[in-house]
Q: What sequence folds into this?
């Protein structure tokens, strides 16, 4: 069942009913100002940090779902409705939401009045623009009044939702009914003291009236679905004093049949220097000069349209870095548009603000941000460079790291703990990806703080060395890396032993004296330890590289020995040295993570020809065969099977989830790409592409009533085969799935990936896509790669570069400005 359709030419998803199974959202902004917006105009806005600079309110766990956003009420002769359907829920004659790249367009029509609202954040601006076009589609004259609505948050989102004894007394606003460019409401709570920032909500015409007090606007016992001011048809010009400050401006509109009128509403964030905060000597009136300048830049429809065109052009340029043209439109739309778009959203948000993350509890994750970089480094390499340096600065001198940092301050914090022993090697992964993409080895010489302390600063390469050495020096009795708090699976808490209800598994004190080890970190170390050695070698440090390769080889042997269970790789050893992820257990026999990453790292790989007699006996083939058989279902590969049915004190949070959900048997989409990549390593592109299609949203669009979440972006989790609601997704948009599926699709299925000296062309897609062309920009040159694909298992590409046959599968980097024609035959 579908609730809309893709418009590939416009790069939009078109939602044709407000009654989707769950709110389907989009993100506005890609620099410092961001908004979340649902297909019903729900959501909120913030500047840089969703916790510390929240402009507008949104209440999670609300009833009904998704009430709170930027709304436009229409009073048409006493008939009050909202073009976004919510919150009034008056029946519409027409409804459509188009989610595009950095913008959303919502259109509603009722009784001969059509209202189209275009929402976007312009490039280089700290503001959300709402361009409203009202059209009279009837054959009679119309007189309607529009009422805008936003509810201001008091900046700190956590305090805003908890500290009512203070917050209900501090709300303050100013109003300019006759501002230089229309009418404006200024939210200035706490500006009188330590804050130097304020918000503005404005319209580019003189409003008939305004309201800034929520209780007056809605009525004390009314909700947003029945606000008394729009119902009465006139604003009351209230000025908030404490309680709940809002921004509402009313604009009457008269339209002849067929006539349209366009208005622009702006929600903006402004700052003033401390010595220029005030417009008066008494320090009572905000200096509104920067707000007036902002509003002046969007005073006309032509200015707004130009800004929107510039936004769309910027996305066109950005997405031109990697495109594919094939016989599979679902593959094309995901690779060309939606997957890369989602990668940029995760770059901006990490895991902080979505409809499943409140923006309060999590900042920018160390591990998360390092992995996200793999999906966006080709799009914005200069910003990837900055992100690497930000991440590295939150590393401790011993090589471990804060697990997250706050985006506003870029300082690490312990809100979600530390001691996750996979964190250090993800920094190596991120830097290696950046170096391969850009060739900018100067980043390795950048001086970067440890623990955000400049006095401890050293080169970025030294940070990588300490990451590498942290794993080398933190091993357990089997020679495998110690797991610490947890590894990639935050819920595999083998040293925690928590018995206190409500206690955080991520921050409670670990029990001392344990020897819990991670097979996953061992495989990760083999994979990225090899990259560390390659980087050291390219710095002329041959001895360092040789020593690193010895450590990697030793770990590889250890994983093959102590990490092998007989048919697959074990997951870990617990506090007492008992294996986890073993056939000897009645539950949790096999985990997905070590299977995929081990094969990616070449562990157990003795043949990459599935037709060879020795292939099936290799540990890599056995592990992935068991993965498909035991973890597979129609919706993807579950993370562990069988799921745990009771709480296991020695395993922590993973066993707290009901079977089939999240880390306990859910389809954790993030790690499915590791198996996809592993299958391409083994030459089984048909299996890889099959697994890809199971979790990829465009292929799941026809079962949207089951999947429930957006059919254009990946979800973190899909309920697994032991769950009562198998196939139902949760936690969309902000997931490492975005980066890893783009890596899997672009670099391994389609097979075009950057290396230190050139592009590797090694497609492994199976027979379903017999021909395709990839256009890849890299280091200033353009590569047009045409693939003729037989889909034969194990077959590898034979390359022709600019008409000349070449040995191997590496296309050397060409000079900037040139175009290279490559043909690959499989």
A:
């Amino acid at each position: 069942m579908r609730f809309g359709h893709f418009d590939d030419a416009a790069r939009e998803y078109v939602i044709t009913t407000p009654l989707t199974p769950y709110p389907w959202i989009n993100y506005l902004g890609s620099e410092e100002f961001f908004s979340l917006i649902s297909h019903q105009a729900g959501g909120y806005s913030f500047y840089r940090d969703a916790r510390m600079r929240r402009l507008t309110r949104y209440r999670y766990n609300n009833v009904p779902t998704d009430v709170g956003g930027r709304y436009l009420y229409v009073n048409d002769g006493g008939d009050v409705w909202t073009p976004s359907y919510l919150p009034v829920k008056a029946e519409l004659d027409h409804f459509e939401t188009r989610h595009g790249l950095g913008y959303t367009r919502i259109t509603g029509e009722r009784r001969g009045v059509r209202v189209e609202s275009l929402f976007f954040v312009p490039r280089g601006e700290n503001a959300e623009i709402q361009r409203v076009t009202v059209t009279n589609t009837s054959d009679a004259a119309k007189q309607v009044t529009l009422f805008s609505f936003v509810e201001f948050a008091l900046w700190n989102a956590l305090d805003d939702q908890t500290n009512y004894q203070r917050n209900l007394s501090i709300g303050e606003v100013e109003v300019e009914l006759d501002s230089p460019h229309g009418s404006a409401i200024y939210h200035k709570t706490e500006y009188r003291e330590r804050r130097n920032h304020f918000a503005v909500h404005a319209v580019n015409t003189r409003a008939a009236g305004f309201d800034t007090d929520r209780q007056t606007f809605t009525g004390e016992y009314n909700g947003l679905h029945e606000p008394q001011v729009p119902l009465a048809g006139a604003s009351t010009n209230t000025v908030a004093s404490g309680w709940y400050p809002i921004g509402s401006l009313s604009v009457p509109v008269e339209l002849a049949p067929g006539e349209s009128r366009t208005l622009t509403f702006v929600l903006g964030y402004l700052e003033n220097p401390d010595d220029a905060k005030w417009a008066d000597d008494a320090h009572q009136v905000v200096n509104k000069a920067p707000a007036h300048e902002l509003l002046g830049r969007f005073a006309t429809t032509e200015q707004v349209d130009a800004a929107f065109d510039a936004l769309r052009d910027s996305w066109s340029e950005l997405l031109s870095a990697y495109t594919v043209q094939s016989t599979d439109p679902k593959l094309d739309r995901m690779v060309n548009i939606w997957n890369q778009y989602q990668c940029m959203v995760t770059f901006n948000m990490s895991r902080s603000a979505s409809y499943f993350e409140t923006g309060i509890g999590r900042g920018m994750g160390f591990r998360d941000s390092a992995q996200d970089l793999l999906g966006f480094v080709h799009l914005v390499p200069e910003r990837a460079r900055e992100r690497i340096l930000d991440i590295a600065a939150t590393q401790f001198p011993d090589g471990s790291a804060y697990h997250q940092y706050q985006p506003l301050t870029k300082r690490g914090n312990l809100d979600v703990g530390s001691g996750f022993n996979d964190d250090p090697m993800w920094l190596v992964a991120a830097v290696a990806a950046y170096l391969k993409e850009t060739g900018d080895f100067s980043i390795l010489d950048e001086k970067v703080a440890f623990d955000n302390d400049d006095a401890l600063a050293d080169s970025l390469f030294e940070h990588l060395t300490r990451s590498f050495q942290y794993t080398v020096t933190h091993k357990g009795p089997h020679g495998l890396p110690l797991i610490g708090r947890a590894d990639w699976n935050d819920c595999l808490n083998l040293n925690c032993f928590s018995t206190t209800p409500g206690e955080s598994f991520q921050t409670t004190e670990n029990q001392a004296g344990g020897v819990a080890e991670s097979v996953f970190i061992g495989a990760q170390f083999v994979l990225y330890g090899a990259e560390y050695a390659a980087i050291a070698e390219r710095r002329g440090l041959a001895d360092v590289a040789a020593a690193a390769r010895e450590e990697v080889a030793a770990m590889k042997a250890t994983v093959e020995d102590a990490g092998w269970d007989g048919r697959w790789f074990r997951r870990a050893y617990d506090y007492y040295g008992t294996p986890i992820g073993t056939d000897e257990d009645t539950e949790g026999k096999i985990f997905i993570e070590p299977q995929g990453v081990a094969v990616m790292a070449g562990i157990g790989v003795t043949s990459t020809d599935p037709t060879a007699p020795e292939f099936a006996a290799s540990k890599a083939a056995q592990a992935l065969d068991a993965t498909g058989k035991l973890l597979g279902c129609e919706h993807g590969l579950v993370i562990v099977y069988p799921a745990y049915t009771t709480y296991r004190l020695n395993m922590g949070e993973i066993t707290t989830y009901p079977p089939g959900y999240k880390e306990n048997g859910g389809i954790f989409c993030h790690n499915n790409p590791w198996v996809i990549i592993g299958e391409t390593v083994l030459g089984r592109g048909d299996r890889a592409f099959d697994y890809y299609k199971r979790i990829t949203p465009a292929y799941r669009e026809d079962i949207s009533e089951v999947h429930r979440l957006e059919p254009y972006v990946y979800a973190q989790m899909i309920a697994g085969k032991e769950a009562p609601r198998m196939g139902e997704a949760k936690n969309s948009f902000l997931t490492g799935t975005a980066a890893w599926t783009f890596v899997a699709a672009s670099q391994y299925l389609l097979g075009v990936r950057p290396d230190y000296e050139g592009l590797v062309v090694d497609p492994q897609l199976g027979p379903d896509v017999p021909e395709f062309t990839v256009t890849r920009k890299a280091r200033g040159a353009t590569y047009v790669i045409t693939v003729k694909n037989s889909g034969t298992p194990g077959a590898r590409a034979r390359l022709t570069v600019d008409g000349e046959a070449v040995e191997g599968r590496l296309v050397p980097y060409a000079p900037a400005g040139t175009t290279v024609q490559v043909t690959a035959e499989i």
